[in-house]
Amino acid sequence: MKGKSIGKSSAILAGDIGGTKTNLALFDAESWPGPAIAEGTFPSCDYPDLETLVKEFLRGIEYHVHYAGFGVAGPVVNGTAKITNLPWTMDEVGLAQALDLKSVRLINDVLALAHALTLLSEKDLHLLKNGSAFKGGSLAVIAPGTGLGEAFLTWEGIKYQAHPSEGGHSDFAPADSNQSALLDYLRNKYGHVSYERVCSGSGLVNIYDFLKENGYGHEPDWLTEKLALSKDRTPIIVKAAMDEKMPCP
Q1: pLDDT in tens, 197-220
Q2: How far apart are CA 240 and CA 218, in angstroms?
Q3: CATH number, domain 7-113, options 3.30.565.10, 3.30.420.40, 3.90.550.10, 3.40.190.10
Q4: The pTM is what?
């Protein structure tokens, strides 16, 4: 964690709560919106709940924190959220009481990204494919991570309105014979197969296992050993795939 302390000023706490990691940042309420005055990244699975994680982050921070907003990886219903890929259940009232805050707001993490989309400038963007945009057209937010988050924005005449979506849990629709074989493989494993089972961190592991078990490639011994010792195989698979010095056959 990095940050600074400037007396007992008032601050706003913001957080991005994911199944793999949690990012927290503190902002001076008087200079909002401005750069973070303190920020930190924490492995989510190392903590029993969000309250414990936040208290560790705020320990030693010389700011009065009265308000907090958290983007969470899952749907928010009546101020309550359960992280899709983490055994945490949170509610706004309970968090406010546990953290001694005046108010806490929970919002779907990708919906939070959608609200910020119109604030991006050209320097924040990286072009993947040329296309023709038209004024007032709908905007989509697709966020593959531990899971597959989605949201969208529609033009309301004077501004864009962000909407939540759980489209990542819609049925995976194969487009060729290889993908059909992948669907059959995953259906035998999970029953229902959503796009999140394919296009996400856990989806990479599913695709890897499918390719390995169906003879698409050979797993070298050094990689087998690494995968066997790891709780999370995704980063190892990604690193091995991108390693030009030790490419996997």
Answers
A1: 999 999 999 999 999 999 998 899
A2: 13
A3: 3.30.420.40
A4: 0.74
